[in-house]
Amino acid sequence: MSESKYREWILDTIDSLRSRKARPDLERICRMVRRRHGSEPDRTCAELEKLIQEQTVLKVNYKGSISYRNAAKVQRRSRKKDDGTLTTAARRSAVEEASHSDLSNGDSAFGPVDQDEEDLEADTSMAMDTDSNADEEGADESRDGQDGPSPGSTYEDAPVPCATVRAAVSAPCSPSGTRPRPGPGCSPGSGLDCVSFQKAGERPSSLPPSSPRALTHNDWAYHSAVCPAERQHPGMQRDKAVTKPAILSVTTSPGPLKNNVKKEDAGGKVEDNGLTSDQLVPDYAAGLEETKNVPDGRPQTLSLPSDNCTFKNKIEISSFTAAEDSLLNGGKGDEISVKKEKMSQNLLQWTVADVASYFSAAGFPEQAVAFRTQEIDGKSLLLMQRSDVLTGLSIRLGPALKIYERHVKVLQRTHFLEYEDL
DNA sequence: AACTGCGCACCAT
DNA sequence: ATGGTGCGCAGTT
């Protein structure tokens, strides 16, 4: 219950700061939320993390510092102009495209990437990664059950990652000095630090190695969504030991699939990059760290066995979707089918949060909100019909069509096929 | 002291 | 050229 409230508060705050031409950074967001609603910075920070994970809020690195964006707005803006001019059809795609790109771009670069389906897929997969992170979120919010690792504090996790990152980078967080102080309440030296230090700009170099989605341009940008590692970050502390696994899982998702499907591009790095957002920043430096753990930085193909997390399933699903497309082009199906299996089974267990995260990750953060609002969980998703998606969610036709055709339908088909087989 | 408004330079497209 | 972003500073609460 408080979650939605926080979502509102935070998005509102971000909008507010933006309109004031002030950078919507952690400190300001926390402060404003506290002032307006009396919420403690720590809590705000934690909630913000969740929003980032579900991509309701995008964390980006802009001009050397971290900023937070209202995902919904970012999307729209990106091609407003075009919209007006284009035909309905065109508009539609434009919008969609925009959303995708936005997701990845996060920042000022709401890229007008109109590539096409391929991009979509790519984005999707990328996004998925994000989801994977959501680990905690899934557990916490939806609390499927078993997994909830620990009642722990979500927010605590954030700090850790940062610290990690910091270490990796070697530069302490405060360097820039631009920012007076880390965050209001969000654990001192925690997420904020990471951020600030990252902005320093050195990060880029460190990323390259293994980070799947190495950032390519601008600043190094990574984003929770983007970085697989992220999920770790949430639970990093406790998972520390499991760090690798997490990574793996990540890999499992989009990256791997892709790799599997198209091994051609050796490295796979290329693909990732494409998707990559310019400035999305993953809070969790964990990602980096993880990356580091893996010496060769090669895409770890192992699939993570852990089935405990719901995310994983999610990820796979998404991957699957993407993979499916890839298949068309001639990929290998074995792996996919396996994933498919997992995914379909899990679909029934998806919670409302899982569904929302899925669509956010798939490049439809704005529409994901609608799914959440309508309380669509995995079971409901299976029952959705075309008209439900197109008109029942009150979302724009363009995204709705794509969501139905590329995601809902695919998920349903996969799910039911599985059952038939069984 | 904290908050707000905004001109203007930056940056990406 | 266009448009988003946010620094830095002045005004307001």
TrEMBL record:
The SAMD1-like winged helix (WH) domain, residue ranges: 1-74
Listed Pfam families: SAM_1, SAMD1_WH
Subcellular location: Nucleus
Assigned keywords, A-Z: Chromatin regulator, Nucleus, Phosphoprotein
Start and end residues of each SAM domain: 350-398
Region described as Disordered: spans on this chain: 72-158, 250-277
One BP annotation, GO: negative regulation of DNA-templated transcription
Domain of life: Eukaryota
Biased composition, class Basic and acidic residues, residue ranges: 261-272
CC terms in the record's Gene Ontology section: nucleus
Protein name per Swiss-Prot or TrEMBL: Sterile alpha motif domain containing 1a
Classification lineage: Eukaryota, Metazoa, Chordata, Craniata, Vertebrata
